[in-house]
Design a protein that fits this description.
Blueprint: E1 7-12, H1 19-33, E2 37-42, H2 53-60, E3 64-68, H3 69-74, E4 84-86, H4 88-97, E5 100-104
Parallel strand pairs: 1-2, 1-5, 2-3, 3-4
Length: 105
């Protein structure tokens, strides 16, 4: 069964050093390899990982990367153009628009 054209949404909320963050990136990588449209929303401590080279490389391959603007502001993290800053309404839209949505906490 081909997954090409399907949409996968991933919510990452842990810091980049945590296994859950890394598992989310592994899933995103495999999904991109299979032709899946991948959307990642980083919230809470995961905003610290937006600049991670591995995540930025996935974004360069077509992953759509979003970061919680409030979480970044609270942690005084300037994300520049590394991710699209968004709020929880955007997260809700992503959840509704994807074929499958998973959370890595």
């Amino acid at each position: 069964m081909s997954l090409r054209g399907k949409k996968l949404g991933l919510l990452l909320s842990t810091s980049p050093g945590q296994p859950a963050f890394q598992h989310g990136l592994c899933l995103a990588e495999v999904a991109l390899d299979e032709g899946v449209e991948v959307y990642v929303y980083c919230v809470d401590e995961a905003v610290r990982g937006v600049a991670e080279p591995r995540l930025q490389a996935l974004a360069a391959r077509g992953l759509k990367l979003f970061a919680c603007a409030y979480a970044a502001q609270r942690r005084q993290i300037n994300l520049n153009d590394q991710a699209t800053l968004a709020g929880l309404a955007s997260l809700s839209d992503l959840m509704a628009a994807t074929d499958r949505f998973l959370s890595f906490n």
